Amino acid sequence: MAGAARDQRGFWDEGALKFAGLSRVRLDALLQELLSRVDEIMDSQERLRALLDAVVGIGADLDLTSTLDRIVTAACELVDARYGALGVIGYDRKRFARIHVHGVTDEQIAAIGPYPDGHGLLGLLIDHPDPIRLHDLTEHPRAVGFPPNHPPMKSFLGVPIRTRERVFGTLYLTEKADGADFTEGDERMVTALAAAAGVVIDNARLYADTERRRRWYEVTTEITKLMLTDFEPQEALQLIARRAREVSASAVGVVFLRSGDDLVVQAIDGPAEFQQYLGRHLPANLPLVTSVMQASHQVVIDDIAQVAKEADRLADIPEIESLKRTILAALPAGTHTPGGLLAVAAERGAVLGVTQGTDLVKMFAGQATLALDRAQAQRDQAILAVLEDRDRIARDLHDLVIQRLFATGLQLQGMHSMVQPEVQKRIGRAVEDIDATIRDLRAAIFELHQQPGHSSLRSDIQALVAEYAEPLGFRPQLTCTGPLDSVIPATVRPQILAAIRESLSNVVRHAEASEVTVEVVVTAAEVMTRITDNGVGLNFGERRSGLRNLSERAESLGGAVHLEANHPHGTIVELRAPIDSQR
């Protein structure tokens, strides 16, 4: 035991001698280095904690716009940068679709002017997405200078933001605190933040896309419910334009329908200044329109104002200059729909809320076609119901009313020889009235078979004869017999109307008549138009251009015009034309 104690004292005495031999200066240096390492560790821990806080902060919610604002703010705070910007790269991969800034007030932004579009130094990370640090950004070869009212900037740090191996945007930081340069540690911190931001942005975009799809299904249900009720086509088109604009987060929604060689604006939803273009015609043969109409998917245009300018159409619609990214989709032709176009456009500086690769606008276009076909089917069903009701009324009139009137007329004629002469005259007039009533009922039956909303030759003749009541000084008597609207071909109708007009004009100019009768009789083989007046009569030796015109019209129909005197005075003009040859 005593020997062990002596050995231990010897060890400590030896260590004490060695320690005493160390230089006090060397010891101070070691202690200083130790403290420095501790400070570095603490600083690293603080920065790591700040990075974690920033990552947690940028993922606070899934709204894409607010997420991008939080990312650029967190990056500035993380490396003590005064100014920051996050540029979202557009679909053309050449310029920014929008920019989120930090450190600049709204007043300064307004004074500076439009945001940069991704050229110069800012476009360097678009072309080469690798981190870059600069002592003075103005000395870089790609620097293009600052616009007026832009705050001075010197130190620079740029880092790309990737989502799923694709560059989503670039993060720019300038003016580190105390005028210092950004360090390699700053670059690593911002790069790490950018990596986390890419995940958050991707989640936010997926969430936004899911929300838009959910909203689209809600809108689809809304439109479907509308189509299950009685609705007007214009109401459906306006609803589709409004919902397409809302779901795509755009400024304007427009529905075009094809009409001949043009597209006609049928519905607009958006700012009031665009409402003036409702009903405006757009040529359907424009190259852009043709390509969209032939495409099987929706077409995205990055700058519609630029396209309109290149097509020399900007002067026609100056309001289009306020719009930029636009999505166009063709309305497919339906059973009763000639096709068309659906367009939604975003304001400059905004981004449409439709993910690339989805065809939401195209789906809305299909809904528009379905709505128009459904509306036409409803109208056809309503017309069919009216026609069926008219057929029933026509059968009742023919089978019941006319037969009873005819029987009554026969009974009166049977009594004619059994009564006094004065009574015979009254019976004769009654029989004539019954015959006139039967003719009127038959004319009404033929009119009942005319489709609602369609042009009627019978009504056109009535309107034409009524026009001459004033120049003649009396209303001509009109009699229409037979199925005018169902038998006479469409090619013959204008000629019949023209013949009646020519004949009545001749009566007004030359006949000096006090009575005029217009008869139109249709049989299975021909149509006959007869105009009779009690005027001064016709001088058959005199050539008149009106009669020549009538003859030419009759010959064009394969018929002829016959003129004869009306006894005791007046003229009869008769035009006959076969029906079968005109079908």
**Continuous helix count:** 16
Number of strands: 16
| Overall CATH class of the largest domain | Alpha Beta
CA distance, first residue to last residue: 140 Å
What is the residue-averaged pLDDT? Answer: 78
Structural class: alpha+beta
Shape: elongated
| Gyration radius, in Å | 45 Å
**Beta-strand percent range:** 15-25%
- Given as residue ranges, the uncertain stretches (5+ residues, pLDDT < 50) are none
The name of the CATH topology of the largest domain is Beta-Lactamase
- Give the % helix: 40-55%
CATH architecture grouping of the largest domain? 2-Layer Sandwich
Itemize the secondary structure elements and their pairings.
Layout: H1 2-21, H2 24-58, H3 64-79, E1 81-89, E2 96-102, H4 106-112, H5 124-127, E3 132-134, E4 156-163, E5 166-176, H6 184-227, H7 233-247, E6 252-259, E7 262-269, E8 281-283, H8 287-294, E9 299-301, H9 304-310, E10 323-331, E11 340-347, H10 360-414, H11 421-448, H12 457-467, H13 469-472, E12 477-481, H14 484-487, H15 493-511, E13 516-522, E14 526-533, H16 545-556, E15 560-565, E16 571-578
Parallel strand pairs: 12-13
Antiparallel strand pairs: 1-2, 1-5, 3-4, 4-5, 6-7, 6-11, 7-8, 9-10, 10-11, 13-14, 14-16, 15-16
Helix pairs in contact: 2-3, 2-6, 3-6, 6-7, 6-10, 7-10, 10-11, 12-15, 15-16
